[in-house]
Structure formats: structure tokens, C-alpha cells
Amino acid sequence: MTETTMTGGRLRIEARNLTKRFGDITAVDDLGFTVEPGRITGFLGPNGAGKTTTMRMMIGHITPTSGSVTIGGKRYHELADPSATVGAVFDAASFHPDHSARDHLRVYAAMGGHPDGRVDELLSLMDLTGAARRRTRGFSTGMRQRLNLATALLGDPRVLLLDEPSNGLDPAGTAWLRSFLRHLAGEGRTVLISSHVLGEIQQVADDVVVIRQGRMVAAAPLAELSGTAPAVLVHSPDAEAVARMLVQQPFAGYETRVERIGPEQLRVWGPDPASLADLAAAHRLRIHGLTPEEPDLERLFLDLTGSMR
Ligand SMILES: Nc1ncnc2c1ncn2[C@@H]1O[C@H](COP(=O)(O)OP(=O)(O)OP(=O)(O)O)[C@@H](O)[C@H]1O
């Protein structure tokens, strides 16, 4: 991958008591979180949770009703050179259908006061050199996403905000985006990506901020959240008795939680499969299958956000 360059320091995004109301709708409700430089932060929440509104407040498109969000301690409009500090990509970004990729970038470079040479650099970085002269009307979703990203990177920003960047990307495009974002974070940049599908960012984010109906649900390193949800699937004709036994069993070190997921199936958090099998045997209960589940963040996410999918 071609080197990107970065001058200047590392910038933290900080939201404090951030609130936005549209008439009767409270889209963002008293949010407080930080997004650290040098890391990729996933901003998660079901549709309508308030992610886009929050990100648009970061770049001054929307004015908070109360509270604040700052970048390196400053509100967006207080930044010395906003477009060289923050690059943002929103889903709705559109291109003039008759413009070529190069035309598009040149227009934005001129508007942002960025050198024209940046255009060819970015076309190459985004693997769009071959399509530089083609009209954007014929671009695939992946090409559009890359052109969006190129537009956001024109000013070599230290902070990158991407709203649903994986939308419409195929697996190769998603893998490319992942390694590209990792590269940018590795240079000390601050990378925030939103998604309503946890799986999309599960493999890329270092930290996650989860919101629901505009409110904070969780903010933590991804590894910490994953660590909270190990589970074992238990298949047993004595499922009810196994569940009762587990809940009543006061055994050390485990905090046991049992979910009944079918007449003969349980999901159990706490004991590992071997301990579970031993316990069931000691109580003369039949176990027909024990399957350890991967730390299931998607489940945790659904539990946290209460969303139905
Ligand atoms: N300009 C507006 N006027 C009125 N309501 C708005 C406006 N913008 C957003 N909302 C409402 O605010 C809430 C949050 O919307 P927002 O787009 O920020 O959510 P989101 O998490 O980005 O959702 P999605 O994943 O669907 O993009 C929604 O109820 C939405 O309808």
C-alpha cells in the first residue's frame, strides 16, 4: 500500500452530554464517550439509533441542542483547518454522474484548497487509476465507496469518520477497507466507523461505542465486551432439570446464567463444557450434546440494543 503521510498530533474525539432533539424526537440523548487516536472505533446501534446525527454533529453539519463534541479539544468550527483535520464519508455522498473520478476529486481538492497532485496520489492509493477518466455513473458500489474515501482523504486528515463504510461492499472490498483502515490507525489517526451490523466491524474495531435510541449502551474495548459472553449450547432431553440444577448449584467461581432456547436446548453462560458434563453426570441427568460458542458479540449486541433481526 502506498504510504499516506500525516503531519501534526494525535486527536481525540470527545462527546460530553451530547444531545440533539428534532422537535419531539430526541435523536441523541446525553451521550458521553471518547474516540482515541491510533485506534479504530466502531460506532454501533440499530437503524435510527442516532449514529449519523452524532457524526454530523462532529463535523458541524448539525448543531447540538445541548452538550458538545470536540476534536482535539476544539469544536469543528474552531479548528484551524477543518478539512485538513477531519475527513468524513457519509452514505449519501453522491457524485455528478457525468464527472470522471479525476474531475470529481479535482473539484473537491480545489474547494478544500488541497494541492492538485493529491488527486493522482489518491486515485492510485484507492486503486482507481485505471478508472480515473471514466464517468462515475458507471461505477460499482465498491468503486463509489473508494472514491468517497479518496474525497475524505484529500486533506490528509488526522481524523476519519466513516458512516456505514461497508454498505454494499463485497468480501474483497470489505477486506481491503479493513486493512486500509488499520494502516491509517497505525499512523496515529483517529478512525470512527459506524454500522448497524456488528459483524461488519467486529474484525476491525479496537473499541466500540454502542448506542440505542440515542442513549449510551456500552463503550469499551472490543476484547472486553467479547470476554463477557462465552456460552455453551446444551442439548439434553432433561433440559428443564439441567437448567434447575445449574441455577440452584452454588459452585465457586462461576456466575451461571441459563437461557431456554428450545424444549431440549439451553444456552449456558458460566461453567465450561467439561464442568457442565460432570455436574450433569453427578445429578444423573442426560446430556446429548455440548457445543462451546464463540464469544458471540452479535448476540451481546442484540441483547444490549434490544433490536430484532
Ligand atoms: N433532520 C431530521 N429531522 C427529524 N428527525 C430526524 C432528522 N435526522 C434524524 N432524525 C431522527 O433521529 C433519529 C436518529 O437518526 P439517525 O439517522 O441519526 O440514526 P442512525 O443510527 O444513523 O440510523 P441508520 O443506521 O438508519 O442510518 C431517527 O429517529 C431519525 O428519524
Structure description:
The chain folds into two domains: 13-226, 3-Layer(aba) Sandwich (Rossmann fold); 231-305, Alpha-Beta Plaits (2-Layer Sandwich), CATH 3.30.70. It is 33% helix and 26% strand. It has helices spanning 51-58, 82-85, 101-112, 117-125, 141-153, 171-186, 198-202, 222-226, 239-248, 273-282, 297-305; strands at residues 13-22, 25-35, 40-44, 66-71, 86-89, 159-163, 190-195, 207-212, 215-221, 231-235, 257-262, 265-269, 289-293. A hairpin with a 2-residue loop joins strand 11 (257-262) and strand 12. The radius of gyration is 24 Å and the shape is elongated. The protein binds adenosine-5'-triphosphate (ATP). Adenosine-5'-triphosphate is lined by residues 22, 25, 27, 45, 47-53, 196.
Average of per-residue pLDDT values: 86
Q: What characteristic shape results from the CA principal axes?
A: elongated
Largest sheet: 6 strands, mixed
Q: In the CATH classification, which architecture of the largest domain applies?
A: 3-Layer(aba) Sandwich
| CATH topology grouping of the largest domain | Rossmann fold
Distance between the termini: 37 Å
Annotation field: number of helices: 11
Portion of residues within helices:
25-40%
What is the count of β-strands? 13
Count of all domains: 2
CATH class categorisation of the largest domain: Alpha Beta
Keywords: ATP-binding, Nucleotide-binding, Transport
GO molecular function, one term: ATP binding
InterPro entries: AAA+_ATPase, ABC_transporter-like_ATP-bd, P-loop_NTPase
Protein name: ABC transporter ATP-binding protein
